[in-house]
């Protein structure tokens, strides 16, 4: 049987992840140095968030690489579960980063410190722009490849952009307000940690559903029924099950046919239904068809 999802989809996901890693390495250095020189914990927290981006993107890359492997004797359904597992690792890392940022922000709020330097605003504005561009690029790849890990990686970039944006607002308040508003950027970092936790949940929920073989979104019953009914002698669908594994979908289908058909005829009809589904829905890797006589 022909491979349903072309290898270039996995390669596109891996390429976008490697680009993200390279960008984040540069951002960690820029934000960390600017935060230290500019006396801004919000910017340092932003650098820490980019640091977690690097680690989780490496997990995503390995997850995509593993998920793209062909089925073998020990993994007859392929290695696709590695892909949502990588997304779950990303969500857990986001929660860990959010907790670390929140704890340090609370400590800094309680300890008086200097107002951040004005130049940190320029750094943050550039970071927001870079991260938003990166988010849109990676998110597009995630949608086109239907990869939960790539989508998770994209949202990690968006959470970094949100962290930078809140830091920009916090530092602006501190600079405009002057003495007494020194902790504004720390409050911004604390607020950003909340956004990061929300993003972590948005990444975790669909990935966990995929691990649990949750029915994918979409009107699969109607689509499968329409395709099956194009095959002569098929009267309808009795039952169906669909699950997503990595980049691909597996379908279990019960079709209804006349009870006086021979075993050979039922067998040929089942194969015709399978071929029709694989032809009409390229993302489906395999179809198991059971014949129900009436």
Automatic annotation (TrEMBL):
Residues 221-293 form the Cation efflux protein cytoplasmic domain. It is found in: Membrane. GO terms for cellular component: membrane. The chain crosses the membrane at residues 16-37, 43-64, 85-103, 115-134, 161-181, 187-204. Keywords: Membrane, Transmembrane, Transmembrane helix, Transport. It is a multi-pass membrane protein. One of its GO terms (molecular function) is monoatomic cation transmembrane transporter activity. Residues 18-212 form the Cation efflux protein transmembrane domain. Pfam families: Cation_efflux (PF01545), ZT_dimer (PF16916). Its main location: membrane. PANTHER family: MITOCHONDRIAL METAL TRANSPORTER 1-RELATED. This is Cation-efflux pump.
